[in-house]
Design a protein that fits this description.
Number of strands: 10
Distance between the termini: 111 Å
Radius of gyration: 28 Å
Number of helices: 7
Helix content: 40-55%
Shape: elongated
Mean pLDDT: 81
């Protein structure tokens, strides 16, 4: 398949999400890859011998027909060295060319060879991959701490120390803030303000990937995390109040003892 100056070696479409390591200030990702292509807002098009790929600033790469060997070489070269733990979330689809845009059974039929149509589709695919990352984070947090409300319901208290509660609250807060801080990535990309004629293509792909429904579900998961956070806050408050109550009881006890000691001294005089 050819596209003007682009020769597609096959019909494979691959999406890789490298997570926050990609855009971190301390990242080992080689940013020179962004300099060798054409930038469209937060995405850069890179044309290679076997196809093209789109690099998104938030850590997702969408490969169009880049063969496996070259794709793997590019993935390896995205790192400056091997010191960074480099996890990836990946998905695979396929594409072809037809008379009109169609998306069915993970096969995308493109109406023409316009690269911005591929970019519009890549935006939706990249967002879907990023959303998957957030879904995994939220689900893991819920799974890791689901025992807390169960334990509270069963025993009326949580059998963990105040320090451990503070650590769990910190972890939950970190997960929640990470997702919320990046939540804007799931909105309609700014690219379509300049190229509104491609927004319908993006929306079509976004509907196919169930992005809106998944965002709603993610919001519910965040609400669940927030409930867990509130349970921990309430339990921590209760533990602190109980601690203060015991201090008061001990002080009152000491005062009573001292009172009787003084009384005994007076009686003995």
């Amino acid at each position: 398949m050819t596209d003007n100056n682009i020769a597609f070696s096959d019909n494979k479409l691959s999406i890789y999400n490298f997570g926050d390591d990609f855009s971190s200030v301390n990242s080992n990702i080689d940013k020179r890859f962004f300099e060798g292509g054409t930038r469209y807002r937060d995405a850069v098009q890179i044309v290679v011998a076997t196809g093209e790929y789109w690099l998104f600033d938030y850590g997702v790469v969408v490969f169009w027909a880049v063969d496996k060997a070259e794709r793997q070489a590019l993935i390896n070269n995205l790192k400056k060295d091997n010191t960074t733990h480099f996890e990836k979330i990946e998905e695979h689809l396929s594409f072809t060319f037809a008379n009109e845009l169609m998306i069915k059974k993970d096969v995308i039929s493109l109406p023409d060879h316009d690269p911005l149509i591929r970019l519009a589709i890549s935006h939706a695919l990249a967002q879907s991959s990023k959303l998957m990352e957030y879904e995994v984070q939220a689900q893991n947090s819920i799974k890791n701490y689901s025992h807390i409300p169960e334990e509270l319901a069963k025993f009326g208290k949580i059998s963990i120390s105040q320090k451990e509660i503070a650590k769990i609250r910190g972890t939950l807060l970190s997960t929640k803030s990470d997702i919320i801080l990046h939540y804007g990535l799931l909105d309609t990309p700014d690219f379509f303000w300049e190229y509104p004629e491609y927004e319908a293509t993006y929306e079509r792909m976004a509907r196919y990937m169930d992005i809106r429904q998944r965002v709603d579900l993610l919001s519910k998961k965040l609400s669940t995390i927030n409930e867990l956070f509130e349970v921990l806050a309430e339990e921590q408050k209760h533990q602190h109040s109980s601690f203060l109550e015991w201090i008061i009881i001990v002080l009152i006890g000491i005062e009573i003892v001292l009172f009787f000691v003084e009384e005994l001294k007076d009686l003995m005089v």
